[in-house]
């Protein structure tokens, strides 16, 4: 079992920045890909970014060049640095950890990000 706890959300003006954190209850990075998803009001949850156990990163097109995913193995933490935020980035952001061979799929409770002037 893996527990994931997100933090770092809040209210920010357009063009501002936030850094989200996802802390795992144990070291999972050698066997799990950890990603961020978001759900905007009235919309389905969508993929935002992922970092694999090998350190490979992927992003959805709408955040490329603005968001950056990284991790700190010593702290069991994955970060999502979000710059140049837009109102369309407003959503609840969720952390997900997925075992490479299908032996686990875990979600955090979510953190609210609101981009508004």
Low-confidence stretches: none
Tell me, briefly, the overall form: globular
What is the SS-derived class?
mainly beta
- Give the helix level as a range of percent: under 10%
- State which percent range the strand residues make up: over 45%
**Helix count?**
0
Keywords summarizing the entry:
single chain, 117 residues, mainly beta, seven-stranded mixed β-sheet, four-stranded antiparallel β-sheet, 11 strands, 51% strand
Task: Lay out the secondary structure.
Elements: E1 4-7, E2 10-12, E3 18-24, E4 32-39, E5 46-51, E6 57-59, E7 67-72, E8 77-82, E9 91-99, E10 105-107, E11 111-115
Parallel strand pairs: 2-11
Antiparallel strand pairs: 1-3, 3-8, 4-5, 4-9, 5-6, 7-8, 9-10, 9-11
Characterization of the model:
Helices cover 0% and strands 51% of the residues. With 117 residues, it is mostly beta strands. It is globular, with a radius of gyration of 13 Å.
């Amino acid at each position: 079992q893996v527990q994931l706890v997100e933090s770092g959300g809040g209210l920010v003006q357009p063009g501002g920045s936030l850094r989200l954190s996802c802390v795992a209850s144990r070291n999972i990075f050698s066997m799990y890909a950890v990603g961020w998803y978001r759900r905007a009001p009235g919309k389905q949850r969508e993929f935002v970014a992922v970092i694999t156990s090998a350190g490979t990163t992927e992003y959805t097109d709408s955040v490329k060049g603005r968001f950056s995913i990284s991790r700190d193995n010593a702290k069991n933490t994955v970060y999502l640095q979000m710059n140049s935020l837009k109102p369309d980035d407003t959503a609840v952001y969720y952390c997900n950890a997925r075992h490479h061979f299908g032996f686990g799929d875990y979600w955090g409770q979510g953190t609210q990000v609101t981009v508004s002037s």
